[in-house]
Amino acid sequence: MKKKHIPNTITCCNLIAGCIATYYAFQGCYYEALLFIIIGAVFDFFDGMSARLLHVSSPIGKELDSLADDITFGFAPSAMVFSFLSSFHIHLTFVPFLAFIIAAFSALRLAKFNLDERQALGFIGLPTPANALFWGALISSLDFQTWFEPYMQPEYWLYIILALIPISCYLLVSEIPMFALKFKHWGWKGNEVKYLFLLSCIPLLWLLGTGGLAAIIAWYIILSVATNRKPT
User: Fold this and answer.
1) The predicted structure's pLDDT at residue 186
2) What is the distance between the alpha carbons of residues 161 and 173, in angstroms, rounded to a whole number?
């Protein structure tokens, strides 16, 4: 295999992982769907890394990457939300289809990212992988955990999810600066927010399990808004 084809091959693996995640989402197998979203995120990380290491890039690779990302980080989490909403007895049958607005805004986010030159060291708006991990972890935790039941009736989550959909879509295309986990150096000065975020991930995952991943993304958003420093 020619080295110029390696990043595109990895990107295709991301796309395939997203397709498998979507299949499991429609089957109501939310944990498996989340697992393949995470696998897709790993491939997404390594396709960019391989392109930089091999010094290869192409317009087709950029377009393919956006297509794969919208399947894995847009359509797959939308399918999870759709399946979850469909599990409720809703008189308005169109309500679960509102989940696919997430896929549309994810595509818009990816298109904006491709044209925005301000996002070299940080992000403007919520990255699609972070949004996908939030939804995947939230839906998976609601399906497998019952810690919320003594405090909240399960059907209340219908309204919470419906409220979170427009918030999620807004964050994807917003002009809110959000930090990236990219280090110019490993010292504390200048990396305080990143180290604080990474250290806080451990107790959140330990205390909340799968739901901790959703909490981590929420904490990432809060930290980004609190620091509110535009990437340079």
Assistant:
1) 74
2) 19
